[in-house]
Amino acid sequence: MTRLLISNGKVADSETDSISESIECIKTSRNWLHEQKIDDILEYVDAVGKKWSNEFQEKIGANTSHVKNFLSESYLQNKLDIALHGDRHSLDDFVDLGDPKLLFHAQPRGVSCHWIAGNVAILGIFSSIQSLITKNVSVIKAPADYELLLDLISSLEDINTERISGKNILKCFEVMYIDKDDSTNQKLLSNSADIRIAWGGHDAIKSITSL
Q1: CA gap 144, 124 in Å, rounded
Q2: Rg, Å, the chain Cα set
Q3: Each residue of 117-150: b (16+ CB within 10 Å) or e?
Q4: Residue 59 contacts by C-beta under 8 Å, 6 or more apart in sequence?
Q5: Rounded to 5 degrees, what angle do the CA atoms 70, 167, 11 make?
Q6: Nearest partner of 152 among 134, 135, 136, 132, judged by Cα
Q7: Cystine design at 46: which of 31, 50, 73, 156 (Cβ 3.0–4.6 Å)?
């Protein structure tokens, strides 16, 4: 059984035979995300962290403060600057990183696919946000117990900042549940990915990498 949980910016929660349409749908959001300024995206993510830590504290539990700190604008600014050789604005345009002959512009890879482990579903949020702030759209394969993940991702639609609309952000995420025995859609998911991020134990990771 395969279920689309969030598709084309809407909560779907409906069965499907193939995820190919969902994959094509997420690709249409790549250009919009690439055009957004990184500082505007970070401001939006900071607002997400505040909303989640306030409204979902009981569901997130002990990880609430960690989620809020990770999603804070100052924390992510620092991490991006480190990862991008001192200037996160290379995600927006060509920048000078010290080479007298070259300018540099960091490019997103495209579609990132996330396999989320059922016992640590909150980990999927961290990799999904890292994809967002590097301007990669995400397809999330949810665990069987997907209620919290669905609540968090769907709430993005209701969060707006001066320059970023939550409705547009939600279109950067496709969330689905694919049964482990559905080899056709499992392989389709993996083949659609430019980035593959898997959470889980040894057996789960071995199964995913075999795709």
Answers
A1: 14
A2: 17
A3: eeeebbbbbbbbbbbbbbbbbbbbbbbeebebbb
A4: 148, 151
A5: 90
A6: 132
A7: 73
- State pLDDT tens for residues 123-151: 888 999 999 999 999 999 999 889 999 99
* Closest to 114 (Cα-Cα) out of 138, 149, 90, 87: 138
What's at 23, amino acid-wise?
Answer: I
Q: What is the pLDDT of residue 181?
A: 85
Global pTM?
0.93
Residue whose entry in the numeric block shows the structure tokens 């999603």? 71
User: Which residues are within 8 A (CB) of 62 and not within 5 positions of it... i.e. 6 or more apart?
Assistant: none
Task: Specify whether the CB–CB gap between 106 and 189 falls below 8 A.
Answer: no
